Predict the structure.
Amino acid sequence: MAGLDELSRSVRAFCDDRDWTQFHTPKELAIGMVSEASELLQLFRFQSDEQMRGMLSDASARERIGDELADQLFFLLRFADLYGFDLAHELSRKIEKNGRRYPVETSRGSNRKA
């Protein structure tokens, strides 16, 4: 599995080859992330738990799901690369922050928002 740096370089090269940086403002990339998340959500809309389990075991459905996940990752990596976010650092920082917000003692087995 490729690391974040390698994935970011791949996305950067893809975009540079097409001269797309001019279109990749923070707003447009954020819109792209939300749009792609909505496309993933649409795949599951009105599906029962059983139907969703079936989708996750069907090669064609998994490919569509994977496409949407990859699209989201593309926009996320592009945003982080262009605007100087170290995603590994940001995730580590956020997990630490959430650990304080959701201590194991009071959060285990609960999905309540703090």
In short: The chain has a mean pLDDT of 96. The longest helix spans residues 59-83.
